[in-house]
């Protein structure tokens, strides 16, 4: 028996879509598609609302950085952002569809960000914390009081030079600029990941847990980086370690190197990091070479070239990833399921299919049958591709492990059309077909695979496989 849980809801997806690189809809499209296929009903536990405190974020991130992220002044619509944007438009369109097509819609989408914030759980309380001793609670109260008194922003003007300098120092400009309701975003999406860690050690039952809004692998201890503000992966692994899990393996399938996670655990013998990523001159973040791996205690980097395809990834997974991970004998495997290497993504660097990437991820889930599994999201910059990918990957998990009756596979036909739902019109140009990006003559184009067969042999030799 496997306990299946997922953190997702209308509320969480709308908060996640406050992140600028989500283009106001990445998470919402995913949630709506999951719901339209009836997949949420196949989970044992659906976590709809989660949050975390500043104190929890400071278990990895620096105090000054967290104070900056959670500045209450940012829980508002910022002057330089449009008061009426695509985020509102998508919500209003979804509600129109629901009202026209459902007699009594159970839930509607929030049509204002302020409304979303007003439903935020009391930020002084965490929905993810475990019970603690009396002495630990006293220590927490004292720590919270001290942090409030020492908040470095209290004497800084919101528009002043000192504030601008603080933003620059902590990476909160350019690709990681502050945005409306940034504190809300950080606390809800990180809380969703941390909620997955609850009772991992206490239960003898294997669990497979999902948060497609997590996986922010670039965030550093004191700095935002690569569209990532809080490193929920590091915080999750730290919490699992505190629960008593000794051996943890992290595997990263994103197009970009999982630099933030690797850096956090570079010298750990208990936490293993494995990252498959594009490694070419000038490509962000510029780290992740095999030489970098040599400087760590339990680090395995698999730098790759342009054009990676399903067959090559499958062989890499079988011959390199699985043997390296098996060496660690993990009790918990955390998998970052970035989809920016998929066909149809705006990067156009790799040519992985949804089925191909899913197959490699599920190979790991199946291999470590006695380990807890946490599946997290990641990169992916075509929202309609990502909603399909996370829906198919979710189906692959529940179809195999759900304790509830699963309907017939809805993804067998190449011409399968998506169920009608509130965002169906966004797929109109793709003829509503689930496998649109896999069809010849549409957006599927062959790239030259610059990864050579002998390179896998070299990796095996390097890592003594």
Low-pLDDT runs: 130-156
Q: What is the number of strand segments?
A: 8
Using the coordinates shown, work out and report the CATH topology: Arginase, Chain A
Mean pLDDT: 91
Main sheet: which strands, in order across?
2-1-3-8-7-4-5-6
Sheet with the most strands, sense and barrel status = 8 strands, parallel
Number of domains: 1
Straight-line N-to-C gap: 32 Å
Strand content: 5-15%
Overall geometry: globular
Number of alpha- plus pi-helical segments: 16
Per CATH, the class reads: Alpha Beta
Secondary-structure-based class equals: alpha/beta
Radius of gyration: 22 Å
CATH architectural arrangement? 3-Layer(aba) Sandwich
What is this structure's SSE topology?
Elements: E1 2-7, H1 10-16, H2 26-36, E2 45-47, H3 54-57, H4 63-69, H5 86-101, H6 113-118, H7 134-149, H8 161-169, H9 182-195, E3 206-211, H10 232-242, E4 248-252, H11 259-265, E5 271-278, H12 290-294, E6 299-304, H13 310-328, E7 332-336, H14 354-367, E8 372-376, H15 383-401, H16 453-462
Parallel strand pairs: 1-2, 1-3, 3-8, 4-5, 4-7, 5-6, 7-8
Helix pairs in contact: 1-2, 2-15, 9-10, 13-14, 13-16, 14-15
């Amino acid at each position: 028996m496997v306990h299946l849980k997922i953190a997702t809801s209308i509320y969480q997806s709308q908060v996640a879509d406050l992140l600028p690189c989500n283009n106001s809809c990445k998470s919402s499209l995913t949630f709506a598609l999951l719901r339209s296929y009836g997949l949420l009903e196949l989970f044992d536990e659906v976590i709809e609302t989660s949050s975390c405190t500043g104190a929890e974020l400071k278990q990895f991130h620096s105090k000054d950085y967290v104070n900056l992220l959670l500045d209450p002044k940012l829980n508002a619509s910022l002057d330089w952002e449009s008061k009426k944007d695509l985020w509102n438009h998508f919500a209003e369109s979804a509600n129109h569809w629901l009202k026209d097509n459902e007699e009594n819609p159970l839930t509607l989408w929030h049509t204002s960000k302020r409304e979303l914030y007003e439903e935020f759980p009391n930020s002084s309380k965490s929905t993810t914390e475990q019970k603690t001793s009396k002495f630990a609670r006293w220590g927490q109260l004292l720590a919270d009081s001290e942090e409030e008194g020492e908040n470095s922003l209290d004497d800084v003007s919101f528009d002043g030079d000192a504030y601008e300098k603080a933003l620059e120092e902590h990476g909160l400009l350019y690709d990681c600029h502050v945005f409306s309701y940034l504190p809300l975003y950080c606390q809800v999406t990180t809380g969703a990941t941390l909620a997955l860690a609850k009772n991992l050690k206490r239960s003898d039952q294997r669990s497979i847990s999902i948060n497609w809004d997590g996986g922010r692998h670039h965030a550093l201890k004191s700095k935002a980086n690569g569209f990532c503000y809080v490193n929920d992966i590091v915080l999750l692994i730290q919490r699992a370690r505190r629960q008593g899990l000794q051996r943890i393996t992290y595997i990263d399938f994103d197009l970009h190197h999982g630099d933030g996670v690797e850096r956090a655990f570079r010298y750990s013998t208990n936490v293993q990091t494995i990252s498959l990523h594009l490694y070419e001159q000038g490509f962000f973040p510029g780290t992740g070479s095999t030489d970098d791996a040599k400087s760590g205690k339990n680090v395995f980097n698999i730098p790759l070239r342009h054009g990676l395809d399903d067959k090559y990834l499958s062989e890499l997974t079988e011959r390199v990833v699985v043997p390296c991970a098996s060496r660690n004998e993990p009790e918990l495997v955390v998998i970052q399921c970035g989809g920016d290497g998929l066909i149809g993504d705006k990067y156009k660097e790799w040519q992985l299919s949804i089925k191909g990437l899913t197959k490699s991820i599920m190979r790991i889930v199946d291999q470590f049958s006695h380990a807890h599994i946490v599946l997290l999201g990641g990169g992916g910059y075509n929202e309609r591709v990502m909603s399909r990918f996370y829906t198919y990957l979710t189906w692959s998990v529940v179809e195999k492990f759900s304790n509830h009756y699963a309907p017939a596979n809805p993804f067998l036909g190449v011409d399968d059309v998506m169920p009608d739902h509130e965002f169906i019109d966004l797929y109109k140009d793709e003829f509503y077909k689930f496998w649109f990006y896999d069809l010849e003559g549409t957006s599927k184009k062959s790239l030259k695979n610059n990864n050579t067969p002998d390179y896998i042999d070299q990796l095996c030799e390097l890592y003594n496989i």
